[in-house]
Amino acid sequence: MERYVDIHTHHPAAGSTTPLSAGIHPWDAERFPATIPGLEDAEAIGEIGLDALRGPAREVQLAALRAQLRLACERELPVVLHCVKAFEPLMHELKACMPRAVIFHGFIGSPQQAQQALAQGCYLSFGARTFASPRTLDALRSTPLDRLFVETDEAPDPIGELYARVAAARGVTVDTLRRATFENYERIFGKRNG
Questions:
Q1: pLDDT tens digits for range 100-138
Q2: Nearest CA-CA partner of 139 in 178, 83, 194, 187
Q3: 21 in the Ramachandran plot: left (φ > 0), alpha (ψ -120 to 50) or beta?
Q4: Theoretical Cys-Cys bridge with 84: which of 31, 51, 97, 186, CB 3.0 to 4.6 Å?
């Protein structure tokens, strides 16, 4: 297995697998209910969510989020979530409308938030920002491999370097981590292609 799963990136690279997603980002929530470009070919709805620091008013973000969660449920698609300073409200919305798979991209929360998301069946994705926060590093270490992803997002770091850093923090080999994330990817996306 030579490819890396980069669950969320703005810069797709050779040698990595990234699901095709389409959605209205919370920063652009005032555009909803516009047509979502690329939805017909999407493997996931995303990146969607809530952001308390940027974007339109919370009510506008909530309306876009709720509609896209319903759409994900109707189409039986997973979602890729954006969450900034809005963990509890986002978890509340997921309890009301839970898609078949949920991936928190760029997770930078506490171990307690990680456990709450994991208990609800979510996956957590970690990237370069993980290493700037001791509490997020603790969350990474406590996330089971069968619920974990790695991502580059907007960071310039090559995906292989991020895998090396995450594997070292977890005390596993890069191959073990790569195998686990590939199995997670197949669990969520593989059956839809078969």
A1: 999 999 999 999 999 999 999 999 999 999 999 999 999
A2: 83
A3: beta
A4: 51
